[in-house]
Write a structure and sequence with these properties.
Blueprint lengths: L4 E6 H19 L5 E6 L3 H16 L5 E4 L30 E9 L3 H13 L4 E9 L11 E5 L7 E5 L8 E5 L10
Parallel strand pairs: 2-3, 2-4, 4-5, 5-6
Antiparallel strand pairs: 1-8, 7-8
Helix pairs in contact: 1-2
Length: about 190
C-alpha cells in the first residue's frame, strides 16, 4: 500500500455497513411492495446482490436485483478519449409502480446518479426511486442526495475512494487514495 492510501475498512467493516444499510431500507420502506434493487455497473451490482440477500431474509421473500449500464447516458461521452465499453443493462422485472433502490458504490459529483435515473426512467415509471451509496465523498455538481449512506468521507477533489468488492475485485475493502501533496483539512 502506498503512503497515500488509507484503508477505511476491510471486509468485516464493509459487511457491517451493508447490514446497517439493509436495516435502513427496511425501516424506510417497510413491507412496501414491490421492492427492487438496481445496481449501477460495475460495483453497484454485487453490493445490490448482497443487500438483496439480507433484505430477503428479513422480508421472507426474494428481492429482485437488476443491473444497469450508464455508459451511453453519460454527459461526458463526447469527451472520452476511447470507445466506451458497454456491459449491458439487465432488468428482468417491471419497474412500473415499483419501489426502486438505486445502488452505487461512491457518490461524488452526482452525474453517475443522474445518468442512472435516466436509464431507470427509460424502462418505465417507478412509484419511487431512492439512492443508496456505500460512500458519500461530497463535491456534488448536481442537486443529488443519497437516501441511504454507508459512510461519509471528507476528500479533496483530487482524491479517490475505491470501494472494492468481490467478485469484481480480489478482496472486499474501502480505500482512500490521497493525491500527492494533499494536506488534510482539520475538522
Amino acid at each position: 500500500m502506498s503512503p497515500f492510501e488509507e484503508t477505511l475498512c476491510e471486509a468485516e467493516g464493509l459487511d457491517l455497513i451493508l447490514t446497517r444499510l439493509a436495516r435502513d431500507i427496511l425501516d424506510a420502506c417497510g413491507q412496501e411492495a414491490p421492492l427492487r434493487l438496481v445496481g449501477v455497473r460495475s460495483r453497484g451490482v454485487p453490493i445490490a446482490e448482497r443487500l438483496a440477500v439480507r433484505l430477503g431474509e428479513s422480508l421472507g421473500r426474494e428481492v429482485p436485483v437488476g443491473a444497469i449500464d450508464i455508459t451511453l447516458y453519460r454527459d461526458d461521452l463526447d469527451t472520452a478519449q476511447r470507445w466506451p465499453v458497454l456491459r449491458g443493462t439487465e432488468i428482468d422485472f417491471d419497474v412500473d409502480d415499483a419501489q426502486i433502490i438505486l445502488v452505487d458504490d461512491v457518490l461524488y459529483t452526482g452525474r453517475t446518479t443522474r445518468a442512472a435515473l435516466n436509464v431507470v426512467c427509460d424502462l418505465g415509471r417507478p412509484a419511487r426511486v431512492r439512492l443508496l451509496t456505500v460512500i458519500d465523498r461530497g463535491h456534488r455538481e448536481l442537486p443529488i442526495q443519497a437516501d441511504f449512506v454507508g459512510m461519509v468521507v471528507r476528500t479533496a477533489r483530487t482524491d479517490r475512494v475505491r470501494v472494492q468488492v468481490t467478485p469484481v475485485d480480489p478482496i472486499d475493502q474501502i480505500v482512500l487514495v490521497r493525491s500527492p501533496g494533499h494536506q488534510p483539512r482539520s475538522a
